[in-house]
C-alpha cells in the first residue's frame, strides 16, 4: 500500500526514543514466555500529557528458536479510565503499512465517541523493525531522492534503469539486515502480538486495525480465534490477492479516484482556476507530467514527484485542499514551493528515512512469493497501464525490489474467520488502497461480522474522523459487543455517509497551506493511520 505518510507523530507527538524502568518477569502460558514489559516514562510529550507508559518488550528474532537472538519492540499503554468492574481489557492498535509506526496510537481511544474507549487499555506498538523498536530496519535512506527516472518505462533503457535500482535496494537490505530480513512476515508480527498479550497477562485481546493492519488482524484471528474478543477492521485487505494482485487492483482504483479528484477541482474552478472540466484538468496534468519529466522543477520535482503528490488525493479527502492549493500556485503563478513541501512531507531522506519502506518490502516480499519473472510484471503492468495510467508504473517500481528480495518467502495463511466471535468491518465504497471488494470478501469469511459502508466515499481507513453514523456504531460495538444486524447477500450491513469532500472558498484555500481552521490533533492522527501500500 504505497504512500507512507512520514509525519509519524499521531496527535502531534514526536517519537524520539523511550525511557524505560526495570520490572518483574511474567510467566507465559506456553511456548515463548516473555518478561513483563518494564514500563517507564514515554519520550513523546503527547503521550506524557496523556499519562501513557512506554517500554521495550523482548521477543525472539525467530520464534522457532525462542532461546536464540532477541529483539525489542517499543510498546505504549494508556490505561482505562473506568472502574475495574467496567474494564473491557486490552486494545491493540495497528496503523498499517506494513511499516507504520503505531507507538503513539494508544491515543486512539480518546477519539471513540461517548467515552466508549475509556473502558480499555489502549496498546500502541511499533512492530518489529519499525521506528523505536530495536533494531530498526534501514537499507538506503536516499533511495527515494529527487528527480528519479520517469516511472513509465517507455524505453528499454528506462526499464533497465529501474530494474537496476530495484535490485540495488534489495541487495542493500540483504547486506545491512540479513538476519532480520528472514523474520518480518505477518506471521512473525502475529507472534509478537501474542507476546504482548502474554506480557500483559491477558487471556484475550481486542484489536483495531487500519489498512494492512486489517490483514494482521485477519491472520491473528485465524491462528488464534479464541484469543480475539472484539475486532474493528477499517480498510480491509482482500486476502485473495496478497500481495501481487492486490497491488494491480489498487492501480485501477487509484486511477478512478484521481478522476473523482479532477472533477472536484473543476467544480471549484472559481477557487483554484485550473479548469471547468475534470477531463481537461486530467489532460493538463498529463501535459505537466511530461514537461516535468524533461525539466524537473528546481532540478528536484519531476514527473514522479508530481504523481506522488497527487496520489495523496487518491487515498483520502483530508489533503484535497492542500494539493489543490499547491498545484494552483504552480500552474497559475509558477511557484512550486507548495508541491515540493507536500512531496518532502511524505518522502523524507537521509539515514534511516527508509524505515517504513524497508519494512513494507520486508513483510510483503516474504509473506508470499512474488513473481520472479520480469516478463510477467511487464505484461501485467502494461495491460493495467492502458486501463489505468495514473499510478500503475509508480506502484510497480515501488514493489519491484520483491523480485530480488533476500528474505525467504513463505505461503500466506488461509484466512478463516468462522471461529471468531465478532468483527466490525468498515470501508468506503471507492476506497482505492483497499478496494471495497476486499471488505465483501472478508465479510464472507467472517460469518459473525457486520460491514459498515461509507457510501460513495473515496477515503481509505478514515473511521473516527467525525462521521457520526460510523463512529457511533464503533462506540456501540466497543461498549456492548453488539454488532449491527447482518443482512443477507454479499453487501454491506449498514450504509453511512462517507467522510465528506471539503468545500473550499478563496479564504479556506489560502488557509489550507498553513492548516488554519483544522484540528491539528485529529489531522495528525488521521495521517498517521493512513499508511498504505
The amount of helix comes to: 40-55%
Rg (CA only)? 22 Å
Distance between the termini: 1 Å
Give, in order, the helices and strands.
Answer: EHEEEEHHEHEHHHHHHHHHEHEHEHH
* Mean pLDDT score: 91
Shape: globular
Unreliable stretches covering 5 or more consecutive residues:
2-30, 509-520, 529-533
Task: Give a description of the structure.
The chain is of the alpha/beta class and 533 residues long. The chain has 17 helices and ten strands. It has helices at residues 45-49, 156-181, 186-199, 212-223, 244-267, 269-272, 278-294, 303-315, 320-333, 337-346, 355-367, 374-387, 392-399, 436-445, 468-480, 506-512, 520-529, and strands at 40-41, 53-60, 70-78, 89-94, 120-125, 205-210, 228-234, 423-428, 449-454, 494-496. A ten-stranded mixed β-sheet has the order 1-2-3-5-4-6-7-8-9-10, with helices on both faces. It is globular, with a radius of gyration of 22 Å. Residues 2-30, 509-520 and 529-533 have low confidence and may be disordered.
Produce the secondary structure layout.
Elements: E1 40-41, H1 45-49, E2 53-60, E3 70-78, E4 89-94, E5 120-125, H2 156-181, H3 186-199, E6 205-210, H4 212-223, E7 228-234, H5 244-267, H6 269-272, H7 278-294, H8 303-315, H9 320-333, H10 337-346, H11 355-367, H12 374-387, H13 392-399, E8 423-428, H14 436-445, E9 449-454, H15 468-480, E10 494-496, H16 506-512, H17 520-529
Parallel strand pairs: 4-5, 4-6, 6-7, 7-8, 8-9, 9-10
Antiparallel strand pairs: 1-2, 2-3, 3-5
Helix pairs in contact: 3-4, 5-7, 5-8, 7-8, 8-10, 9-10, 9-16
Amino acid at each position: 500500500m504505497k504512500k507512507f505518510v512520514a509525519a509519524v507523530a499521531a496527535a502531534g507527538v514526536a517519537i524520539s526514543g523511550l525511557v524505560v524502568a526495570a520490572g518483574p518477569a511474567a510467566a507465559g502460558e506456553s511456548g515463548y514466555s516473555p518478561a513483563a514489559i518494564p514500563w517507564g516514562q514515554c519520550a513523546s510529550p503527547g503521550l506524557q500529557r496523556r499519562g501513557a507508559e512506554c517500554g521495550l518488550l523482548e521477543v525472539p528474532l525467530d520464534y522457532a528458536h525462542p532461546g536464540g537472538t532477541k529483539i525489542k519492540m517499543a510498546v505504549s499503554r494508556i490505561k482505562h479510565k473506568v472502574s475495574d468492574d467496567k474494564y473491557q481489557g486490552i486494545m491493540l492498535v495497528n496503523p498499517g503499512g506494513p511499516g507504520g509506526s503505531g507507538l503513539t496510537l494508544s491515543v486512539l481511544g480518546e477519539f471513540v465517541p461517548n467515552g466508549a474507549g475509556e473502558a480499555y487499555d489502549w496498546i500502541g506498538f511499533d512492530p518489529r523493525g519499525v521506528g523505536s523498536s530495536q533494531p530498526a530496519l534501514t537499507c538506503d535512506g536516499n533511495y527515494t531522492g529527487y528527480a528519479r527516472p520517469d516511472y513509465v518505462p517507455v524505453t528499454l533503457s528506462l526499464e533497465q534503469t529501474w530494474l537496476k535500482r530495484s535490485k540495488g535496494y534489495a541487495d542493500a537490505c540483504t547486506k545491512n539486515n540479513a538476519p532480520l530480513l528472514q523474520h518480518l512476515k505477518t506471521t512473525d508480527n502475529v507472534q509478537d502480538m501474542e507476546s504482548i498479550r502474554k506480557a500483559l497477562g491477558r487471556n484475550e485481546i481486542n484489536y483495531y486495525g487500519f489498512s494492512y493492519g486489517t490483514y494482521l488482524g485477519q491472520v491473528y484471528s485465524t491462528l488464534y480465534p479464541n484469543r480475539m474478543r472484539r475486532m474493528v477492521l477499517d480498510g480491509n485487505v482482500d486476502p485473495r490477492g496478497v500481495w501481487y494482485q492486490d497491488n494491480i487492483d489498487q492501480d485501477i482504483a487509484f486511477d478512478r479516484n484521481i478522476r473523482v479528484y479532477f472533477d472536484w477541482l473543476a467544480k471549484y474552478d472559481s477557487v483554484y482556476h485550473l479548469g471547468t472540466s475534470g477531463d481537461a484538468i486530467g489532460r493538463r496534468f498529463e501535459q505537466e507530467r511530461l514537461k516535468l519529466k524533461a525539466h524537473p522543477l528546481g532540478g528536484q520535482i519531476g514527473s514522479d514527484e508530481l504523481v506522488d503528490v497527487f496520489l495523496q488525493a487518491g487515498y483520502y479527502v483530508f489533503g484535497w485542499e492542500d494539493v489543490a492549493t499547491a498545484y494552483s500556485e504552480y500552474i497559475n503563478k509558477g511557484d512550486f514551493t507548495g508541491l515540493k513541501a507536500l512531496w518532502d512531507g511524505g518522502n523524507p531522506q537521509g539515514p534511516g528515512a527508509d524505515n517504513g519502506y524497508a519494512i513494507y518490502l520486508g513483510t510483503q516480499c516474504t509473506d508470499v512469493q512474488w513473481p520472479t519473472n520480469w516478463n510477467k510484471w511487464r505484461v501485467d503492468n502494461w495491460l493495467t497501464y492502458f486501463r489505468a495510467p495514473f499510478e500503475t508504473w509508480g506502484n510497480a517500481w515501488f514493489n519491484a525490489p520483491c523480485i530480488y528480495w533476500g528474505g525467504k518467502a513463505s505461503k500466506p495463511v488461509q484466512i478463516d474467520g468462522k471461529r471468531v466471535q465478532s468483527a466490525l468491518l468498515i470501508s468506503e465504497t471507492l476506497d482505492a488502497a483497499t478496494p471495497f471488494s476486499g471488505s465483501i470478501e472478508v465479510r464472507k469469511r467472517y460469518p459473525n461480522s457486520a460491514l459498515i459502508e461509507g457510501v460513495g466515499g473515496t477515503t481509505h481507513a478514515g473511521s473516527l474522523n467525525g462521521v457520526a453514523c460510523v463512529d457511533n456504531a464503533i462506540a456501540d460495538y466497543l461498549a456492548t459487543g453488539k454488532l449491527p444486524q447482518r443482512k443477507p447477500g454479499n453487501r454491506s450491513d449498514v450504509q453511512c455517509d462517507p467522510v465528506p469532500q471539503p468545500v473550499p472558498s478563496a479564504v479556506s484555500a489560502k488557509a489550507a497551506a498553513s492548516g488554519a481552521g483544522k484540528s491539528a490533533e485529529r489531522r495528525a492522527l488521521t495521517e498517521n493511520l493512513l499508511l498504505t501500500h
